[in-house]
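hiii, so i know i said id send this last week but things got crazy w the move. better late than never?? heres the sequnce for the chain we talked about at the cafe, plus the structure i predicted for it. fair warning i was half asleep when i ran it
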Amino acid sequence: MSTVQETTATSLLRFATAGSVDDGKSTLVGRLLHDSKSVLADQLEAVERVSLGRGQDAPDLALLTDGLRAEREQGITIDVAYRYFATPRRRFILADTPGHVQYTRNMVTGASTAELAVVLVDARNGVVEQTRRHAAVAALLRVPHVVLAVNKMDLVEYAEPVFAAIAEEFTAYAASLGVGDVVAVPISALAGDNVVEPSAHMDWYGGPTLLEHLETVPVGSDPSAEPARFPVQYVIRPQSEEHPDYRGYAGQLASGVLRVGDAVTVLPSGHTTTVAGIDALGKETQLAWAPQSVTVRLTDDLDVSRGDLLAAGPAPVPTKDIEATVSHLNERPLRAGDKVLLKHTTRTVRALVKDITYRIDIDTLEQRSGAEGLTVNDIGHVVLRTAEPLALDTYRDNRRTGSFLLIDPADGTTLTAGMAGEAFATVRATEPAEEDWV
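okay and structure toks below
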């Protein structure tokens, strides 16, 4: 098998949108859905009816998403609104994340599985603090592609120098974060310029429209080039007359390709065996690739249970000591000495926060040591000690098996999202602590 990567005609792109309040993100999402013919007729009629009632001449496309915003203002928690649409060239899952600074944590949810992030900027305001924060989150989560959408170009008379200055500032900042692929697109979501159709007002711009870039940006990777990682979710032992000796391990392949006959290591025990068979959708198959859900059978009768990891090729070394960059998501602060639960793939273990090494200043990218803890939306570096060994890859090498969650053991709420082995190398300087905070 040379590759199992999808072709562009059938591929799926997961992308997230982010922007400051009033940058026009709702209008952009509405315009993207409307002009790509992804809005149902009754939805469009409802928008036209409400817009007409407000005295507006044209449909307010922001209304296609403002319903969820209204729910949020009523106190209903909605982390991320997902939109599904398709064009003849590609299918899309759009994670529409809130723009308020207190919801920055929700971008972590939306961008954690995204292959592209669209960061929206108001052409009148340029790059602001929230823009830098969104870029930092995208870099931290290693989102491969970033699009800078400079919106409201119609309000700056479609001036090329305005766009060029913003694009240059953002690209330089993204480069300092380690983001290699940044594409800047000047748009007007309200007027539809360069969203789906090329603009007649910006003949100085020769790049793709936003949708054209979304349709053509390379997505996915060849799973055969990645090491196979299979977290065991469930042990299947029917013990029936038809299958008296059947023992299978069900789960979703996190990365790589697994074949019958492959040598695998069971982690964290370290026992080695080979793949005797693979069952997918009730039928035997010779191979499986991420992210397929399959049942794996092994040649040896080993003690394998939920939470174990089957690894083919170079295997991570199980450890109880973990260093990671984290994004704190909860209103409750995270402090050194806290006892938490750590969820890694299908395994959950008890853990202790031994140290909070530093907090990252989003404005300057400096490491601020001496912090008393991490509060909501903070990004920092922590040292953890787990009660049981875990087989983590570094997040740089594997986003699925290099990530984890810290959970409050008292009520099960999610506290923190972590990236194992990450040191956020883009930080420019370390500021010494003024006092010992322990």
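btw The two ends are 55 Å apart (CA to CA). thought thatd interest u
miss u guys!!
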